[in-house]
Design brief:
mainly alpha; Hypothetical protein af1432; 2 domains; two-stranded antiparallel ribbon; 10% strand
Length: 222
Protein backbone atom coordinates (compact mmCIF):
# COMPACT_ATOMS: atom_id res chain seq x y z
CA UNK A 1 0.00 0.00 0.00
CA UNK A 2 1.14 3.54 -0.73
CA UNK A 3 2.86 5.37 2.13
CA UNK A 4 1.69 8.67 3.54
CA UNK A 5 4.86 10.43 2.37
CA UNK A 6 4.40 9.13 -1.18
CA UNK A 7 0.75 10.22 -1.16
CA UNK A 8 1.77 13.75 -0.18
CA UNK A 9 4.35 13.80 -2.98
CA UNK A 10 1.63 12.84 -5.48
CA UNK A 11 -0.65 15.73 -4.49
CA UNK A 12 1.86 18.52 -3.79
CA UNK A 13 1.45 20.12 -7.22
CA UNK A 14 -2.36 19.90 -7.17
CA UNK A 15 -4.54 23.01 -7.01
CA UNK A 16 -6.53 21.11 -4.34
CA UNK A 17 -3.56 20.35 -2.08
CA UNK A 18 -4.80 22.28 0.97
CA UNK A 19 -8.32 20.92 0.56
CA UNK A 20 -7.04 17.34 0.36
CA UNK A 21 -4.91 17.69 3.49
CA UNK A 22 -7.93 19.10 5.35
CA UNK A 23 -10.08 16.16 4.24
CA UNK A 24 -7.30 13.78 5.33
CA UNK A 25 -7.25 15.33 8.81
CA UNK A 26 -11.02 14.98 9.11
CA UNK A 27 -10.84 11.37 7.92
CA UNK A 28 -8.08 10.57 10.43
CA UNK A 29 -10.15 11.76 13.38
CA UNK A 30 -13.42 10.26 12.15
CA UNK A 31 -11.68 6.88 11.81
CA UNK A 32 -10.45 7.23 15.39
CA UNK A 33 -13.99 7.96 16.60
CA UNK A 34 -15.32 4.91 14.75
CA UNK A 35 -12.38 2.62 15.63
CA UNK A 36 -11.56 2.17 11.95
CA UNK A 37 -8.18 2.02 10.19
CA UNK A 38 -7.13 5.65 10.62
CA UNK A 39 -4.04 5.27 8.43
CA UNK A 40 -6.10 4.00 5.49
CA UNK A 41 -8.82 6.60 5.99
CA UNK A 42 -6.23 9.38 6.09
CA UNK A 43 -4.72 8.12 2.82
CA UNK A 44 -8.14 8.11 1.17
CA UNK A 45 -8.62 11.71 2.27
CA UNK A 46 -5.22 12.72 0.94
CA UNK A 47 -5.77 11.12 -2.46
CA UNK A 48 -9.50 11.60 -3.10
CA UNK A 49 -8.98 14.58 -5.45
CA UNK A 50 -5.78 13.30 -7.04
CA UNK A 51 -7.31 13.59 -10.52
CA UNK A 52 -9.17 16.88 -9.98
CA UNK A 53 -6.99 19.04 -12.22
CA UNK A 54 -7.23 16.42 -14.95
CA UNK A 55 -11.01 15.86 -14.73
CA UNK A 56 -12.43 19.25 -13.67
CA UNK A 57 -13.79 19.83 -17.19
CA UNK A 58 -15.67 16.52 -17.03
CA UNK A 59 -16.58 15.74 -13.44
CA UNK A 60 -18.37 12.53 -14.44
CA UNK A 61 -14.83 11.09 -14.69
CA UNK A 62 -13.72 12.52 -11.34
CA UNK A 63 -12.67 9.69 -9.04
CA UNK A 64 -12.45 7.10 -11.81
CA UNK A 65 -9.13 8.44 -13.09
CA UNK A 66 -7.68 8.64 -9.58
CA UNK A 67 -8.84 5.09 -8.89
CA UNK A 68 -7.00 3.83 -11.95
CA UNK A 69 -3.82 5.71 -11.03
CA UNK A 70 -3.95 4.10 -7.58
CA UNK A 71 -4.92 0.61 -8.79
CA UNK A 72 -1.91 -1.15 -7.26
CA UNK A 73 -1.41 1.28 -4.39
CA UNK A 74 -4.69 1.22 -2.45
CA UNK A 75 -7.09 -1.61 -1.56
CA UNK A 76 -10.30 -1.92 -3.58
CA UNK A 77 -12.56 -0.47 -0.88
CA UNK A 78 -10.42 2.66 -0.70
CA UNK A 79 -10.46 3.13 -4.46
CA UNK A 80 -14.24 2.64 -4.52
CA UNK A 81 -14.66 5.38 -1.90
CA UNK A 82 -12.66 7.74 -4.12
CA UNK A 83 -14.84 6.85 -7.09
CA UNK A 84 -18.09 7.67 -5.31
CA UNK A 85 -17.19 10.73 -3.23
CA UNK A 86 -18.56 13.13 -5.88
CA UNK A 87 -22.21 12.55 -6.85
CA UNK A 88 -21.46 13.42 -10.47
CA UNK A 89 -19.57 10.14 -10.92
CA UNK A 90 -22.84 8.24 -10.56
CA UNK A 91 -21.28 5.67 -8.20
CA UNK A 92 -23.41 4.78 -5.16
CA UNK A 93 -21.75 5.05 -1.71
CA UNK A 94 -22.16 1.88 0.33
CA UNK A 95 -19.65 1.53 3.19
CA UNK A 96 -18.88 3.74 6.17
CA UNK A 97 -15.64 4.68 4.42
CA UNK A 98 -17.56 5.86 1.34
CA UNK A 99 -19.98 7.96 3.37
CA UNK A 100 -17.29 9.33 5.68
CA UNK A 101 -15.29 10.60 2.69
CA UNK A 102 -18.37 12.40 1.30
CA UNK A 103 -18.94 13.93 4.73
CA UNK A 104 -15.30 14.95 5.21
CA UNK A 105 -15.21 16.48 1.73
CA UNK A 106 -18.29 18.57 2.56
CA UNK A 107 -16.93 19.65 5.94
CA UNK A 108 -13.66 20.69 4.31
CA UNK A 109 -15.56 22.97 1.92
CA UNK A 110 -17.10 24.63 4.98
CA UNK A 111 -13.70 24.98 6.64
CA UNK A 112 -12.41 26.67 3.48
CA UNK A 113 -14.93 29.48 4.06
CA UNK A 114 -14.19 30.07 7.72
CA UNK A 115 -11.92 32.70 9.23
CA UNK A 116 -11.33 33.92 12.75
CA UNK A 117 -13.25 34.28 14.99
CA UNK A 118 -14.91 30.88 14.78
CA UNK A 119 -17.55 29.54 17.14
CA UNK A 120 -19.50 26.31 17.42
CA UNK A 121 -22.70 28.24 16.66
CA UNK A 122 -21.20 29.62 13.43
CA UNK A 123 -20.19 26.17 12.18
CA UNK A 124 -23.57 24.69 13.12
CA UNK A 125 -25.41 27.41 11.19
CA UNK A 126 -23.22 26.90 8.12
CA UNK A 127 -24.14 23.21 7.87
CA UNK A 128 -27.84 24.03 8.28
CA UNK A 129 -28.24 26.67 5.56
CA UNK A 130 -27.87 25.63 1.90
CA UNK A 131 -25.04 27.47 0.13
CA UNK A 132 -25.87 28.93 -3.26
CA UNK A 133 -22.93 27.31 -5.04
CA UNK A 134 -22.94 24.06 -3.02
CA UNK A 135 -26.56 23.21 -2.11
CA UNK A 136 -25.61 19.54 -1.61
CA UNK A 137 -23.59 20.28 1.53
CA UNK A 138 -26.61 20.27 3.84
CA UNK A 139 -27.81 16.94 2.44
CA UNK A 140 -24.36 15.43 2.89
CA UNK A 141 -24.37 16.34 6.58
CA UNK A 142 -26.94 13.58 7.08
CA UNK A 143 -24.17 11.09 6.41
CA UNK A 144 -22.97 11.64 9.99
CA UNK A 145 -25.93 9.66 11.35
CA UNK A 146 -25.46 6.98 8.71
CA UNK A 147 -21.92 6.26 9.90
CA UNK A 148 -22.71 6.64 13.59
CA UNK A 149 -21.14 9.99 14.51
CA UNK A 150 -23.49 12.57 16.09
CA UNK A 151 -23.53 15.81 14.12
CA UNK A 152 -22.66 17.80 17.26
CA UNK A 153 -19.49 15.74 17.65
CA UNK A 154 -18.56 16.55 14.06
CA UNK A 155 -19.14 20.26 14.61
CA UNK A 156 -16.78 20.18 17.60
CA UNK A 157 -14.24 18.37 15.41
CA UNK A 158 -14.49 21.08 12.73
CA UNK A 159 -13.83 23.79 15.33
CA UNK A 160 -10.79 21.92 16.66
CA UNK A 161 -9.33 21.31 13.20
CA UNK A 162 -9.86 24.94 12.24
CA UNK A 163 -7.81 25.98 15.26
CA UNK A 164 -5.02 23.66 14.13
CA UNK A 165 -5.15 25.27 10.69
CA UNK A 166 -4.81 28.66 12.38
CA UNK A 167 -1.52 27.52 13.95
CA UNK A 168 -2.84 26.62 17.40
CA UNK A 169 -2.70 23.18 18.99
CA UNK A 170 -4.46 21.75 22.05
CA UNK A 171 -2.63 18.96 23.88
CA UNK A 172 -3.34 16.32 26.47
CA UNK A 173 -2.19 17.38 29.98
CA UNK A 174 -1.23 13.80 30.81
CA UNK A 175 0.86 12.63 27.82
CA UNK A 176 1.25 15.91 25.88
CA UNK A 177 -0.19 14.34 22.71
CA UNK A 178 -1.91 16.66 20.18
CA UNK A 179 -4.10 13.76 18.96
CA UNK A 180 -7.31 14.73 20.73
CA UNK A 181 -10.97 15.26 19.86
CA UNK A 182 -13.75 17.18 21.55
CA UNK A 183 -17.27 16.21 22.49
CA UNK A 184 -20.18 17.64 24.44
CA UNK A 185 -21.59 15.90 27.50
CA UNK A 186 -25.12 16.83 28.55
CA UNK A 187 -27.87 18.77 26.81
CA UNK A 188 -28.88 22.39 26.30
CA UNK A 189 -27.47 24.88 28.82
CA UNK A 190 -26.11 22.10 31.01
CA UNK A 191 -23.80 20.77 28.33
CA UNK A 192 -20.09 20.52 29.16
CA UNK A 193 -17.40 20.74 26.47
CA UNK A 194 -14.80 18.00 27.07
CA UNK A 195 -11.78 16.53 25.27
CA UNK A 196 -10.36 13.04 24.92
CA UNK A 197 -6.81 11.99 24.06
CA UNK A 198 -6.60 9.26 21.41
CA UNK A 199 -3.20 8.11 22.65
CA UNK A 200 -3.62 7.69 26.42
CA UNK A 201 -7.47 7.88 26.50
CA UNK A 202 -7.45 10.66 29.13
CA UNK A 203 -10.71 12.63 29.17
CA UNK A 204 -11.41 16.00 30.76
CA UNK A 205 -11.89 19.74 30.32
CA UNK A 206 -8.43 21.14 31.16
CA UNK A 207 -6.50 20.53 27.93
CA UNK A 208 -3.68 23.02 27.42
CA UNK A 209 -3.45 25.15 24.26
CA UNK A 210 -0.19 26.33 22.64
CA UNK A 211 0.83 28.24 19.57
CA UNK A 212 2.09 25.61 17.13
CA UNK A 213 5.61 27.07 16.96
CA UNK A 214 5.83 27.05 20.76
CA UNK A 215 4.57 23.46 20.93
CA UNK A 216 7.13 22.33 18.35
CA UNK A 217 9.92 24.10 20.27
CA UNK A 218 8.91 22.39 23.54
CA UNK A 219 8.61 18.91 22.01
CA UNK A 220 11.90 19.25 20.12
CA UNK A 221 13.64 20.30 23.34
CA UNK A 222 12.24 17.27 25.17
Amino acid sequence: MITRNRAIQLIQASSRYEHMTTVATLMYYMAKLLHEDHQLWELVGLLHDLDYDRTKQDMSQHGYVASEILRDQLPDQARYAIQCHDHRSGVTPKSSLDKALILADSLAHILDRLSEPITLDLVTSMVSIPLVDKPWLVQNMKRSHEIGIPQQTLMNLVVDIHRKMQRWVRVCPRCFSPHISSYTRGVWSWATHRYQCHDCQYSGTNFVEFRLDEFERITNTN
